[in-house]
Amino acid sequence: MFDLDRAWQVDHRVSMRPEPFGALLYHFGTRRLSFLKNQTVLAVVRSLADHPSARVACLANGVAEGELPAYARALAALADSHMITERRSHDSGA
Amino acid sequence: MTLAPDVAPGSGVTRPGRLTDLFQLGLDAPICLTWELTYACNLSCVHCLSSSGRRDPRELTTDECKAVIDTLERMQVFYVNIGGGEPTVRPDFWELVDYATAHHVGVKFSTNGVRLDAAAAARLAASDYVDVQISLDGATREVNDAVRGPGSYDMAMRAMGNLRAAGFTGFKLSVVMTRQNIPQIDAFKSIADEYGAQLRLTRLRPSGRGADVWDELHPLPAQQKELYDWLVAHGEQVLTGDSFFHLSAFGSALPGLNLCGAGRVVCLIDPVGDVYACPFAIHENFLAGNVRDAGGFESVWKTSSLFNDLRKPDTGGACKSCGFYDSCRGGCMAAKFFTGLPLDGPDPECVRGYGETALASAGGLAGGLAGTAVPRPSVDHSHRTAPARPRATAGGAVPVTIARRRPPAHDCDESPLAGFAAGPRSATGCC
Amino acid sequence: MPEIGHEAETEALTSDELLVEEVSIDGMCGVY
Questions:
Q1: Exposed e or buried b for every residue in B264-292, given b needs 16+ CB within 10 A?
Q2: Structure ipTM
């Protein structure tokens, strides 16, 4: 299960392209393509590096408590495909 | 312009829909696209979708190609599939590939292997951002060379051997599925496994020279089912370029977006800069503009009337009442167009049989009755070893002709008129 | 095989509730 209370960031090899419906993410290393299907999940992903945890990032972008499981599933999928990675304590937040 | 799905008022949250619904409306930039670098080719494959062979004198210069790459970078097109003709015969091929990867555009190029020597293989193995696709249409020399010409099987094998020796694994072995090679499907998998390649199976379409051989080479109904079952059994191990979404009506959808991406998420840039909806639809009806026009490729993608028409929601037309429309989406636009079928009706290979019925009532591929000839490609760069095919006149009328390369009728032909207008056939079935 | 088909169907039924979906870069028709 995805750990919402860890710090995350978008992998540097990922290119993010906003779209009207959300966004496309392409990982140049793995050649995989992910689709973010709404604007909120895009905002969460973009802001991951700015927050101490994924949970804080979600709440900061207007995700309601009841919606957190759905967003955790989304982030888990992105972690599985290496689009996002855990941020170690020495990584800069920006 | 692209449309956004409904947003619930007061919340930033859109209700996520199915990807197919979101993409049908088009995107601000293609996800990936096919870029044919040249019409020149050392081969004359009988089914060539781009009718390639001879270089066009108006082909984009190196600098014009780099300008296209700059545009793709700006639009964040992640990935281009470079093809042709045979793209490696362009003297600036490597320069352009390097330029693309240096500008954040990933490249996969399709090749018959002619220039894939040990040095080229080593160069590729050293790069993370370039992928290769080798074309092969028979698991044996006999079956392959009947379609691709003498020596082509050996050339592909040698190229694959060079890639393996250089340590390049995961390259693509791409096969166009035909009546002749579907029985070899397990052998293709073995070849791919032997060379550390990923097998890719794609659909034969009546596009380019494909129209001349479609009658004799397209899979029979029983073979379509066999192919579908095999693909389901092999899952994501085998790629398809989403070219078999018309088979989804057999049962569950195959992996992929399962929709026609033409003008919506993909398109073609041809060697002279013409932008078509798809590489299987090289015809003036599907020509959206040219990269040399003011505004370049970006303007064509975003504002062409053709693409905006394609991005309107699909209502299903004649297929609307069929319970399988949701899976098959009415099949392939190019397959319908080049068999003379209406675009809002069934695919010629509709697995429910509606395409056969439609073809029979339209007079089959032989056409030629009462001036209703099947559309021919507008563009033909085939090697001239046989007289050129007739073109549409300026007024749009297509002259009625004896189909010079129409194969003799077979008992299993679907159309009652097959072979009616058949003329003598060249020995190779092509140029 | 029936199981694979069934899985794909189940996924398709719920895919419109997923916030993230992945597709192969090869999964688009119109690119050869």
A1: bbbbbbbbbbbbbbbbbbbbeebbbbbbe
A2: 0.89
